[in-house]
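quick one: beta-D-galactopyranose bound model?
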Amino acid sequence: MATPQDPRAAFTLGVCYYPEHWPRDRWPGYARRMRELGLTYVRIAEFAWSRMEPRHGEWDWGWLDDAIETLAAENLKVVLCTPTATPPAWLIRAHPEILPVDAEGRTRNFGSRKHYDHASPVYRAHSSRITEAIAARYGEHPAVVGWQTDNEFGCHSTTRSYGPASRDAFRVWLAERYGTTEALNEAWGNAFWSQEYGDFSEIDPPNLTVTDPNPSHVLDFARFASDTVATFQEEQVAILRRLSPGRWVTHNFMMHFGEFDHYRAAECLDFATWDSYPLGQVERFATSEVEKLRWARTGQPDLISFNHDLYRGLFAGGNRGFWVMEQGAGQVNWAPSNPLPARGAVALWTAQARAHGADVVSYFRWRAATVAQELMHSGLLRHDETLDRGGEEVAALEIVGLPNEPVRAPVALLHDYESLWAYDEQPHSAGADYWGQLMLFYSVLRALGVDVDVRHPEHDITGYRLVVAPALQLVGEERAHRLTELARTTPLVVGPRTAYRTPTGRVHEDGQPGPLRGLLGLSMRNFDGLRPGLTVRVGAHEVVTWAESYALRGGEATHTYDNGPLVGEPAVVRHGAATTIGAWSPTLITEVFTGLLAEAGVPTTPLLDGVRVARRGGMETWLNFNETPVTLPDGSTLGPVSFEQQRT
Ligand code: GAL
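yep, here:
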């Protein structure tokens, strides 16, 4: 989708920059140094509303005109943002109803960012107004090659707001979806605990209930909030398309962020971008203290690459190029502890992103902030404007200019946000969650050296050698039909809790896996939510967190439980092209995949811990996330925290 001004045929770099933080006399020197560092793109203005419009209707564009001209003078390309992540103080004073309300019922105040409810009609009007203003002024500026909407939708738990704006819009959304409260009561199972409604105006957001709210209520509120983020974005994108012809529009999504449906939100974009902070990510998402320590200076390779593989493929028709819009270039400020990255890590992250299909990697941020919330955060420049360690690695990178060829993975991993919402509302076992189950299967594939596309089950999933659905909890007739058709030509693997529920969150009346029973050749018998430390065995394999067993209905048990309450019952069932794995066990899943991939003709290479390989076009990139050298399968040595590219 490259435009004439913006041929992204070759891999390039960019940076996130805040000219409004520095005196104007610094700007020309910064622009010159950006060019000298080999940067091409500069993203600006996503938080600068109060500088553009200091008072309602009073515009000050002079500084932004100069900032853009200064960058253009060095031949840098500008990615301009709508500044709606930060409504200014005058707007909040005039319309406090814009502010979001948290699940505890507290209004979240002005004084940081993202302080708005996406459903607020007043805020929607102001969001369109500022988008029109900035797009009218710069939409056809020759240096402006593309747009980013807002900044990180949902950041700081802002997808769901529980105040009047969202409440009112939720009622309208429910009335449109169900038509009558009888239909809603049936879908949610409201006979349970006398939760039946007689009018849509009786329904509130699912917060502050005495004990857990009805999970179907929670599921629909998640859907509503997700749709609201998507339509908020669509309004901006429509304006940008009208006033900025020929430019692309994107949004910077977050890592492992599940509060809204990214597939739906991306429909109106040209391509996706995401923000990668590997060290903060490992602090937040690694599953144990041991893992957090193990990857504290490099990040965990699969946590990072999962997001590359996801954002590349958000679109119905398949992969597009993607960017890392914010690539951490040093330490962050927001994790409990913020270590310095190992030497080489910034270059390694950049090479990994490229190998997984990134067209551009853009670093956060140019110069470390000398004021306010992020003054402990690193940039390419230190506070004193000297080039920081990450900046030195960027200066030495030799991968700029490589062709941006497509990634073609042999395996698709199916993923959907609705299953995530249902799963995480009732995890049933400490340690079980949707991302954890997805990552279990993803990491096994990556550790076998296999490239993976992450895909939505309703998007194009043809042409793969193997399709894996680790956690599709919500399955109705249509989805079951699609999967059944797919399995005529493609081997399919499903994980625990597949088809546990209907699309409204009820359990299938004929038990699990509901409409997939014929395809999988089984029905579920029992599930065992294993507390931390409680394990069972399947042969030599230890099973943690979750174990489920099946009655055979045409399928054949390839593995059974060896102890515990499910002893002797099937843990893995094969039925023609379909395989069901019911036990949470990395080694068991590795064994099953090794066999299935061989059958499917997908070569595997068991990799050392911390070593990964990714293929893009005619190039294979080997990545070592260990802080010690490793020996690769071909006998060569790869140094600590480094990468190597080989033509295939
Ligand atoms: C991102 C955000 C940036 C900055 C950064 C710090 O989530 O988009 O504005 O706050 O984190 O790591």
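The two ends are 27 Å apart (CA to CA).
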